[in-house]
Amino acid sequence: MDYDYDSNEIALKTWFDGKDSESGKTRYVTVIPWNYGRRLIERDGLISLQVTVHRDDRACWTCKDRISYVKERLAEDNIPCFWTREPDDGCLYVTVGPLPQHTSVEKYLTFLLVLPVQIYPSPEKSLGSQRQTKGRRRRVVQ
Question: What is the distance of C-alpha 112 from the center of its chain?
Fold first, then answer.
């Protein structure tokens, strides 16, 4: 895997060596209290969680705050991880794993982030997309 540094001073690894972006199991999650649903990709025994919601996270303070929060949380517990950008959406993902035995992805991510994580089968069914359609806007960064 190659390393590249982005504007958030994160060493990015290149995940794909000729693989397409859907080489793993894709689901969608809501991280409470974050706005917008996030994509979750399980592949090669690892879990990739979408942290940012758009390609140009350099200009977004909310994305920067979430990146910092995730970096600090994982560093606090010495959780090995690496960061990638998915080629199909350009968003920043953190990858952790492998998943501990007898633990669901939902519980593991909730434990790591110290924030409730709920899994949904599609982006239309996520709590984040329901929040968007109701027009509620909250400024909670954690």
Answer: 12
